[in-house]
Amino acid sequence: RSGGAVSIPEQPTSLGSDQRPLSGGQLSTTLCSERHVRRHPLRLELRGITKRFPGVVANDGVDLTIESGEILGLLGENGAGKTTLMNILYGLYSADEGQVLIDGEEVHFEGPGDAIAAGIGMVHQHFMLVPVFTVTENVVLGNEPTGALGRIDMQEARREVREISSRYGLEVDPDAVIEDLPVGIQQRVEIIKVLFREAEIIVFDEPTAVLTPQEVEEFFEIVRGLKEAGKGIVFITHKLGEMLEIADRICVLRRGKVVGEAIPGEVTPGELAEMMVGRPVELVVEKSPADPGDPVLEVSDLVVTDARNHRAVDGVSFTVRAGEIVGIAGVQGNGQTELVEAITGLVIPLAGHITLNGRDITRATPRERHRLGMSHVPEDRQNDGLVLDFDLTENLVLDSYYQEPYSRGIVMDWDAARDHAEELVRQYDVRAPSVDVLASHLSGGNQQKLIVAREFARDTALIVASQPTRGVDVGSIEYIHRRIVEERDEGSAVLIVSSELDEILALSDRILVMYRGRIVAETTPAETTPAELGLYMAGQVA
Questions:
Q1: Coarse DSSP helix, strand, coil percentages of the chain, rounded to the nearest 5 percent
Q2: Crossing angle, helix 414-427 and helix 444-456, to 10 degrees?
Q3: Closest residue by Cα to residue 203 from 66, 61, 24
Q4: What secondary structure, in 3-state letters, does 131-164 show?
Q5: Residue 404: CB partners within 8 Å, gap ≥ 6?
Q6: How far is CA 21 from CA 8, 27, 99, 338, 409, in A?
Q7: 3-state secondary structure of 68
Q8: More exposed terminus of the chain, fewer Cβ within 10 Å: N or C?
Q9: Does residue 19 register a pLDDT over 70?
Q10: Which of 171-175, 234-238, 293-297, 333-337 is most confident?
Q11: What percent of the chain has pLDDT over 90?
Q12: Is the dihedral of CA 420, 421, 422, 428 positive or negative?
C-alpha cells in the first residue's frame, strides 16, 4: 500500500490540549477507549484520485468534496468508478495518485479501522449483521464498552443503543434478535452501528434496494435527520427519482471521471441519465398489451423448506402463460428465493408440482430444464450465476459448452466459443478489456450484464429472472427491460422476481405479491399503485 502511518488533524476533545495527530494503529485503540469523544463537523475532500487495475483506469483524477450537513448524491453507470472511489475513502484501497483530506489535512488510511477512527462510516447494501445476535450485540461487536476487570458492560451498551436510537429517531429495541426484525429495522441497526462509532461522514451504498415504499419514506426521514444533526452523507443509488428527492448536490461519474454536477430541481431524470451514460436514455418501458397463449409454467400447491427446515414457500400456486410477464413483488426474505430455486431445479420441493409446457419437472435437474427451454438469471450473480475464476468466454458457455457449435465430441471448439462471447459482450455492452479477463475483474453491474447476455442469447420457452437489473445502470436497465419485453412478444413466458416496485410495475402484465411464503395478492399494474403494493408486501392481505 502507499501511505503508511495515518495522520489525522487535531480534534477538540476531552483529552487535553496536548493531543497530537495519531498513527494508524493508535487510531483504533483510541476509538475503543474514548468512544464518547465528540468530533466537530468534518469537511472531506478527494483531490485528483486515480486508481488503476490491469487494463482499466477505475478512477481518473477524481475531485470530490463532502461537507457536513449536506447529502451528496453519487451517480454513475456500472464501471464508472463509484465503488472504487468509496473503497479508497473507506481504507479498503489505496489510491495510485491523489490525496484524501480531512479539514484540509492529508490522511492515509491503512484500513477501514483508520477510516472509522477518522469519522467515516459506511452502511453497505448487504447488511453486515450476525442474525442470531441481539441489536446491542451487533452494534458494539468489536468495540464493546467495558467495566471493572475489563468485563463487557452490556447494561451500558444497551443504554448507549437506546440513547442513539432516541437522538436520531431510529426506534430500535436493543434486546431484539436481528433475524426476527424486518429488513427496514435491520437497516436502522446498521446506521446505529455507524453512529456508535462517532461517524461524521456516512456513506450509504444502494440503501433502498430491499425496502418497501413505506420503509423508503421512513429511511429518508432518518437521512434528513442525520443531515440536520450535522452529518455529511454520501448517497449512492441507481434510482434517479430517489436521488432527486433526497440529495442536495449530485455528482456524476462516467468511465472513472467526474463529468458534471447537478442540483435537484434544476435537472430532470432524463438529463441525469444522459449525463451518466453519454446518450439519451428511454426511462419508460414501451410495451403493447400482452396476448397470453397457452400455459408454459404451472406451479401447484408448492411447499419448499429453507436451510432451517422452515416453510419458506407455503402452498403456492400460479401459472405463467406464453407471451406474458408475471412479476412477483415482495420484500426479500419472504420465500421468493426458495420459490425460484425450486422452479429452476436448485432444490427439490417438499410438496407440490411444477410443470413446463405440460411436462412434470418437479424433480428434473437444472440441465434437463435448460434443455426444455428454461433460462435463469439468478439473484446472487457471484455464487449462482458465474464462476468468478473463469474468463468471460468460459462463463458465456457454462450452460451450453456440451452442445454444438462449441462441442465436437470430446473436444471444445474454443474459436467458436470466443466468437460467440465477443458478439454478446458487444451486444450487451459488457465493459471489459477483452473476453479473456476473469469474471471477478468486472464490476457487479457488468457481471449482471454478462449473465443476462448468456441467458437471453438462445431460444427459450420460459425466462426466470430474479432481480434482473440489481446494481445495473440506467442505460443497461433500458436495454435489459427492452429485451425482456421482446422475449415476451416473441412468445416466451417470463417470470420476474424483483424487490424494485418500479420494475415490477413497468414490466409486468400480472403481479403476484409474496409475504411469508404465500401469495397474498394478485393484481395488474393498471389496478394498483406503489403504495398499495407496499402494503401487500408488508402483509396486508388483498
A1: 35, 25, 40
A2: 120
A3: 66
A4: CCCEHHHHHHCCCCCECHHHCECHHHHHHHHHHH
A5: none
A6: 5, 9, 18, 52, 67
A7: coil
A8: N
A9: no
A10: 293-297
A11: 50
A12: positive
Query: What are phi and psi for residue 524, nearest 5 degrees?
Result: -130, 160
User: Look-up: residue for cell 495518485?
Assistant: 97
The pLDDT of residue 210 is: 67
Specify whether the CB–CB gap between 493 and 364 falls below 8 A: no
Q: What pLDDT does 508 receive?
A: 95
Locate 216 and state its grid cell: 423508503
pTM for the model: 0.67
496, 484 contact by CB (below 8 A): yes
The pLDDT tens digits of the residues spanning 202-240 come to 999 888 866 767 778 888 999 999 999 999 999 988 778
Instruction: Give 110's DSSP letter.
Output: S
Q: 382-441, pLDDT tens digit by residue?
A: 888 999 999 999 999 998 888 888 888 788 889 999 999 999 999 888 888 899 999 988
Query: Per the structure block, which three cell numbers stand in for 313?
Result: 414457500
Among residues 386, 389, 411, 387, the alpha carbon closest in space to that of 401 is found at 411
CA distance 325 to 493: 6
CA 264 vs. chain centroid, Å, equals 23
Burial 236-260 (b: 16+ CB within 10 A, else e): bbbbbebbbebbebbbbbbbbbbbb
The answer, yes or no, to whether residue 112 has pLDDT greater than 70, is yes
CA distance linking residue 66 with residue 90, whole number of Å: 14
Q: Would you state the pLDDT for residue 13?
A: 33
In 3D space, the residue among 191, 210, 201 whose CA is nearest the CA of residue 139 turns out to be 191
- Residue 416: count other Cβ atoms within 10 Å of its Cβ: 15
Got the DSSP string for 275-319? HHHSS----S---PPP---SEEEEEEEEEEE-TTS-EEEEEEEEE
d(CA 62, CA 258) in angstroms, rounded, equals 6
Residues 222 and 487 sit within 8 Å (Cβ to Cβ): no
Cell of 213: 415504499
